[in-house]
Amino acid sequence: MTSIKHHPKTETLAAYAAGALDEARAVVIATHLDLCDACRAAARDFEALGGVCLEAAEPAPMKEGALERFWLRAGGARAERAPASTRAANDFDLGLARPLSAYLKGGLDAVQWRRIGPGMEQCVLDAQGYRKGVLRLLKIAPGVRLPKHSHGGEELTLILRGAYEDEIGEFRRGDLADLDDEDTHSPCAIGEEPCVCLIAASAPLRFKGLAGKIVQPFIGL
Predict the structure, then answer these.
(1) Stretch among 32-41, 48-57, 170-179, 209-218 having the lowest mean pLDDT
(2) Residue ranges of the ChrR-like cupin domain (predicted)?
């Protein structure tokens, strides 16, 4: 999708290809890959490189009975049938975004949003990560701006619908902001429809102003 202008960092894609990301971040990256041809190709290259490294690695001795135990575990796992359709079960067009559809059975229109502030709603998704509530949907009404903040660690934000702009640039559907504790911004939803984002964050936001710090415990960001 050539209209996508913002992508994950190279090291983030490499970590995804190596299986080194936690569930929450992996869901965000996998959903972006379903929308971005360039990043999907880059991830395949990293996977191929990893395969070459494995082939070149010196073999390590296995403990006695290790292979038998592996096959017992593999044989005991029930194979899941592939879905009848490869389209996500969402009301927005995400094509092959199966990772996200597992968390949004009824699509965005069925999400139970919780109001966390004027013009802002969120829905916490059940995924393993650095901490509880690490994966969430955030909906921002047009014209609403989040208070200026930095990050206590890593944050991945993928735009699913609508758009926002901040000090970094303009982010639209498919764009991904791969931020860390050195980034400071204040996103503002632009356009005629709410901006819906999928976010995985390793730590709570660090609001710069007094008002943001006061309301943070109540909004849970």
Answers:
(1) 209-218
(2) 109-200
